[in-house]
Amino acid sequence: MADITDYTGKITSEHADKPRYAAMVRAVTQCFVDVKNALSSLPARFDLDRAVGKQLDDVGLWVGVSRHIRAPLSGVYFSFDMAGLGFDQGVWRGPFDPDTGLTTLDDETCRLLIRARIGANHWDGTLAGSKAILGQIFNTGTHVFIQDNQDMSITVGISGKIPSALFLALLSGGYIPIKPQSVRINFYIVTSVNDSPIFGFDVSNEYVAGFDVGAWATPL
């Protein structure tokens, strides 16, 4: 980090005892110190882990993501007595958010969406690669899997910890890029019981399990 002493420290002994001369040097060189410090701070300001506000918007623009939603995400605002929209699930409605739904993402959600886009920009189109992308977005305990239906369509399932209403809306709205070109997504299904796999036959793991363990899947 630049400091004014980088310049005043170079004053020769002939002028070192002249306070007005030193003041003049400080007045002239302070602008250079400020510019150097501003320039050196730019990498950190646009670092994905630390960027906020407009800087984060610029990072998103670079990779192809905007915090502004194409259409309002309905059914995501916090609400009492409504399943899936309680504490740690629903999104607090801001003072300028419309009644119709959320239109602007907060910094942390936007940051995760940018991470997903960066992963998608380097994606090889395989199911294994998509799992790595989804793993960057959803919390530990949430298991996202993709079923290839062998007819140019896939089904996306979510088991374990149920994500927030906002992330479910982003996923079903196509804002999280997890499908190859020309492949359609038939269904998004999520477990109906938190921390449970989806009910299914002949499988028993964290994704799908049978009676007394698995829970019915709910389509988004």
Automatic annotation (TrEMBL):
Q: Which organism is it from?
A: Pandoraea aquatica
- Listed InterPro entries: Phage_Wedge1
Question: What is the name of the protein in this document?
Answer: Bacteriophage protein
Superkingdom of the source species:
Bacteria
Mind giving the lineage of the organism this protein is from? Bacteria, Pseudomonadati, Pseudomonadota, Betaproteobacteria, Burkholderiales
